[in-house]
Amino acid sequence: MKSPGERIPPKLQPSAEPASAAELLQLGRTHERAGAMSEAVQRYAAAIEAAERTGERGVLAEALRRLGVVHHHRNEAEMARSLCQKSYETGLAMGDSVLAAEALNALAGFDFEAGAIEQAREKFYRALELGGASAELRGRTEQNLGILANIQGALAEALAHYQRSLGAFESIADDRGCAIAYHNLGMVSADRELWDDADRYFRRSLDMAKSIGDVHLQGLGLLNHAEVYLARQHYEQARQNAEAALGIFDQVGSRLDKADAYKLIGRVYRETGRHALAESRLRSAVDLAVSTGSILSEAEASRELALLYQSMGRNQEALKLLNAAHRLFGRLDARVDLVDVSTKVLKLEETYFAVVREWGQSIESSDSYTFGHCERVADYALGVARELGLDEQQQTTIRIGAYLHDLGKVRVPHEILNKPGSLTPEEFRVIQMHPVWGLELLATVEFPWDIKPIIRWHHEKYDGTGYPDRLKGDEIPVNAQIICIVDVFDALTTSRSYRGALTVADAIGRMQECRTWWRPDIFEAFLRSIGRMSAAA
Ligand SMILES: [Fe+2]
Ligand SMILES: [Fe+2]
Predict the structure, then answer these.
(1) In angstroms, what is the span from residue 406 Cα to ligand 2's centroid?
(2) Which ligand gives the minimal distance to the CA of 412?
(3) Is residue 218 part of a domain?
(4) Which of 93, 118, 133 is the C-terminal boundary of a domain?
(5) Cβ atoms of 449 and 396 closer than 8 Å
(6) Residue 481 Cα to ligand 1 middle (Å)
(7) On the chain, which terminus has fewer CB atoms closer than 10 Å, C or N?
(8) How many CB atoms sit inside 10 A of residue 474's CB?
(9) 296-343 tens-digit pLDDT
(10) pTM for the model
């Protein structure tokens, strides 16, 4: 059976094979570079056979390694490993430590792609020790160690590796190696927000990429340099760089890089308040990312578009995009995407909290008596959740639910919300609609956390006297009961149009009188949590 990419040998191929092992190895390389993998495999295998016969161990070690790497690309992991292991042993036996180190480097690469990061790191280090005499090998190995450190979030370590990689490439005047090293140094410096360093490295990388005629690297340099300009609020320079990069990516047909260029241009427009242009560029970025299948690119472009919608007050759309991005980040693979996934997820969740918090606060601003209500409810509720031993996931659910629990109040007329004195039964019926209206506002938003029960049922009571559905007992989810109890506590301890704020002791006294509203263990956890907070204050 033929695998994709396999080719029928050209008819005009000379039938007589060159006899020497070294020539067979060269032929194998030529075929491999041309993408003719079947032919490459045949020649490498023939080279191995010939070298074993003639005892040319240097050729043998290299042919074994190259054949191993081809098998690796064909997903034949065991074969790949055993060939490279043999290559390593051959290199060692003949005392050629550079050849042995090359084999180790290949084996480390297999470990890395299989997710065995620690094994990969250990082998890269052994390769450095063995083959450090070869500057070229040192440059590549240090670069790999830098990438490893980078995806684990060890930025200072990554920086040191890239610097050593640069030193190695400089010592042999390998301009391409240097250009890549400068580029990586720029990226890590930007991640560490060392903007001066990043600026300097990107300039060097760009100059070298130009002088060696590497157009793609020039595009990447321009785009990443634009990131530095954007961070320094040099918007016009950032946009010009990104547009130039876009032109290059268009020319070389790299759609994924184009998505990143559109994303940056969109961010510039967003930061400078040109919303329509920002939306169109960020949409292009999302669409292109989707069409290339890059999860990372799609997730990041979605997050940027969400921030735009938030700044335009289009909160539902912002949350929809953030939820989608959250799902995508969950599928990220550090090895494929070469990124530190946990830092990315953390950053997304921060954005998420910021969006829901601000949305919650925007509702408070229409009700002069509840300023800061959501934030306090979130704090108190997390205290109770911890007392009950709820896990991180549930705590996140409760926090987001707390920010959004009164969302439906946007539909309650201002006069009712701010009415001094008591409400008429009709007005009270309107207020009681807010949990239902909250859910209606979020009907089309799918959350990664189960927050809708909190919004709908945070006024239900354990004894069945609550609203809107008059649920009773454990029909009410624990998360909703927690928000309910701290919501009442916050209402009592802040001043209202019809009375002043109660002291904590008085508020708890009132709540003791109606403790049938809450499940006993939740009431107890609430008391403990408030006790702890008052003691700490
Ligand atoms: Fe409420
Ligand atoms: Fe509330």
Answers:
(1) 5
(2) 1
(3) no
(4) 133
(5) yes
(6) 12
(7) N
(8) 10
(9) 899 999 999 999 999 998 988 999 999 999 988 888 777 666 677 788
(10) 0.79
